[in-house]
């Protein structure tokens, strides 16, 4: 015992054991605790954080020497069968045991900084995750051969294992991605570049995909279990998939292949690698099967001449009263996710007006892969989330849930078709820049009680307003009173239609786009964005009817005048209102009512008079009046908050301008 203590400096007893200067770092006051376990094993702990292997190496012994000491029975000590048995059947896991199990030399494993240590009083193997520049990214401990095998060091964030070998992979233009560290060790031992996922589902697209930049060939080992299914799932959405070859082995994994026949490992690995299938080939086969299955479910619907009319009828059967136009636009916008420029929408209206209900019911017609819905999100979650956004709609049930910075990120994603966000992260070498990329294109569907959103957001979206009339309220009450049970699983054919569309060619051309551009009066700069939105909706309607539209020589779907007319009916007023060429009917009504009541500076009009004239409740009158004031068509002489409004006419209503030509006019000009 005293021989070991003699190897340390400034040894002091503290009643429970000893303290000493730690030889693993420049120690100026005792930070090393030394103790003796119940079984006679030495226990060392550096309170400054030095690893056990670092300490033992500094004093010229192996970690195993600490355990060997514990096996010696002290002279004169009584025999204790239970304790001796515990020592012989010692739990935990050592580097020597790991090396023996995997048939790898211990010294080879030490080259990759694997070492023995103590975890929770038991031997364990420390597996450091080293970064490309030699920095320590994380540490994982293997505590057992089977069962519950791993623990992460407190504060460690799981990441790709083997990043210190990434440059070698780039030079060789090839790398193998496996699950777990032991497969990496086996492949490294045979000179094969490899990286390891700590778990099949641990892939983080924004964090991990960039590691594979510059590597032309990526072999991904697919294990024959649920882990393999998990790898296929994230791989189907990953940016690296087009460079991937799927490698299925005759054994569970690379380590098992080596242990099965070490002498023939390289030969068997080469044969398996030659049989690896490109992801694109596998995906095409799966896509063909999925497409055929979807078509069998949706064929009658896909061949319908007016799918939007079918949608409106089905939606009404599912309990949505009125709001047919709004629901159709939402449906078309969600379909546009498959295009290069998805359409974004905001549904506005009072609380309890049915905004979210319309969105929720329409989403049921789509598979969940079409959208990602949230009630709210933190300001930076759009950058850090792992949820794929490419060719999907982000559904946010309250626009205010984005926050100011989140709103900025959203604008970038919608405008640029992708998100590039540079931040800094804390590393061992200090703060380092990190670029986060989120591929798109992505559409946005949100709801709000506000009249307007941030101006930069407002111009990127079409604004829909739910109906707050007495007639609509009557229709909603009647629908509620019917109390008809709704089938929750009767929309399979609608979801199959979207799956079928997504699995086919989604490129659409509008042959009359030039003629349409010439016929649209350039009354406002905003029309530049709205015209693009109009074309996307036309393309979405043509795509929806892909089964009945012709294709050109390049396989592109050709939009017809029918597609234009179907979209024009839905959005002509919305686009006109957006550019100020007309105003919403309910705004006209409230302005006309103030004029009818002879509103003036001498005779400002209050809400009560408007309620009596229009037969509306105070909340509805107040909302309409505030919107008219916000647009400048009414003035409120009362500037104090929470005081009764005193309304007078404001700016004159605009002269009506027809911003979109009729289908007949367009056909004549484009013919």
UniProtKB/TrEMBL annotation:
Transmembrane segments: none annotated. SUPFAM superfamilies: DNA primase core. Residues 644-671 are annotated as: Disordered. Residues 653-671 have a biased composition (Acidic residues). This is Toprim domain-containing protein.
């Amino acid at each position: 015992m005293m021989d070991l203590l003699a190897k340390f400096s400034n040894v002091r007893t503290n009643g429970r054991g000893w303290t000493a200067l730690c030889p693993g770092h420049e120690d100026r006051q005792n930070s090393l605790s030394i103790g003796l376990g119940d079984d006679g094993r030495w226990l060392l702990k550096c309170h400054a954080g030095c690893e056990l292997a670092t300490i033992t190496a500094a004093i010229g012994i192996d970690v195993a020497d600490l355990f060997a000491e514990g096996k010696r029975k002290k002279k004169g000590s009584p025999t204790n069968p239970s304790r001796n048995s515990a020592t012989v059947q010692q739990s935990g896991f050592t580097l020597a045991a790991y090396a023996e199990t995997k048939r790898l030399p211990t010294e080879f494993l030490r080259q990759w900084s694997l070492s023995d240590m103590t975890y929770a009083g038991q031997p364990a193997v420390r597996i450091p995750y080293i970064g490309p520049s030699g920095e320590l990214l994380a540490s994982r401990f293997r505590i057992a051969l089977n069962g519950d095998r791993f623990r992460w060091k407190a504060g460690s964030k799981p990441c790709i294992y083997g990043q210190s070998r990434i440059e070698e992979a780039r030079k060789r233009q090839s790398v193998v991605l496996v699950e777990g560290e032991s497969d990496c060790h086996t492949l490294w031992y045979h000179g094969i570049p490899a990286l390891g996922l700590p778990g099949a589902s641990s892939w983080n697209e924004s964090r991990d995909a960039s590691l594979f930049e510059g590597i032309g060939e990526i072999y991904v080992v697919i294990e024959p279990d649920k882990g393999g299914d998990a790898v296929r799932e994230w791989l189907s959405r990953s940016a690296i998939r087009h460079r991937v070859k799927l490698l299925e082995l005759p054994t569970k994994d690379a380590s098992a292949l080596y242990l099965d026949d070490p002498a023939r490992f390289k030969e068997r690995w080469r044969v398996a690698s030659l049989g690896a299938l490109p992801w694109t080939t596998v995906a095409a086969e799966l896509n063909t099967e999925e497409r055929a299955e979807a078509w069998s479910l949706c064929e009658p619907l896909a061949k319908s001449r007016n799918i939007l009319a079918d949608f409106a009828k089905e939606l009404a059967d599912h309990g949505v009263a009125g709001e047919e136009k709004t629901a159709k636009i939402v449906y078309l916008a969600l379909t546009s996710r498959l295009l290069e420029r998805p359409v974004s929408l905001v549904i506005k209206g009072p609380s309890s007006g049915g905004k979210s209900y319309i969105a929720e019911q329409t989403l049921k017609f789509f598979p969940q892969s079409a959208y990602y819905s949230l009630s709210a999100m933190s300001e930076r979650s759009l950058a850090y989330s792992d949820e794929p956004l490419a060719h999907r709609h982000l559904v946010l049930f309250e626009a205010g849930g984005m926050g100011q910075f989140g709103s900025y990120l959203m604008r970038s994603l919608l405008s640029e078709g992708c998100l590039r966000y540079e931040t800094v992260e804390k590393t061992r070498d200090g703060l380092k820049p990190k670029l986060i990329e989120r591929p798109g294109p992505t559409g946005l569907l949100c709801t709000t009680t506000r009249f307007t959103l941030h101006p930069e957001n407002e111009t990127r979206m079409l604004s829909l307003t739910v109906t707050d009339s007495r007639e609509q309220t009557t229709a909603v009450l009647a629908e509620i009173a019917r109390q008809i049970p709704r089938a929750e699983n009767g929309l399979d054919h609608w979801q199959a239609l979207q799956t079928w569309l997504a699995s086919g060619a989604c490129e659409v051309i509008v042959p009359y786009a030039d003629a349409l551009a010439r016929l649209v009066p350039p009354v406002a700069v905003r029309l530049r964005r709205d015209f693009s939105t109009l074309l996307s909706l036309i393309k979405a309607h043509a795509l929806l009817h892909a089964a009945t539209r012709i294709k050109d020589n390049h396989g592109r779907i050709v939009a017809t005048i029918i597609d234009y007319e179907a979209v024009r009916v839905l959005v002509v007023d919305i686009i006109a209102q957006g550019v100020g060429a007309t105003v919403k009917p309910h705004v006209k009504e409230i302005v006309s009512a103030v004029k009818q009541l002879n509103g003036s500076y001498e005779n400002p009009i209050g809400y009560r008079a408007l309620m009596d004239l229009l037969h509306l409740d105070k909340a509805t009158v107040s909302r309409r009046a505030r919107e008219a004031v916000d647009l400048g068509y009414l003035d409120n002489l009362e500037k104090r908050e929470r005081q009764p409004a005193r309304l007078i006419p404001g700016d004159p209503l605009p002269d009506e301008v027809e911003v979109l030509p009729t289908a007949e006019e367009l056909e004549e000009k484009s013919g």
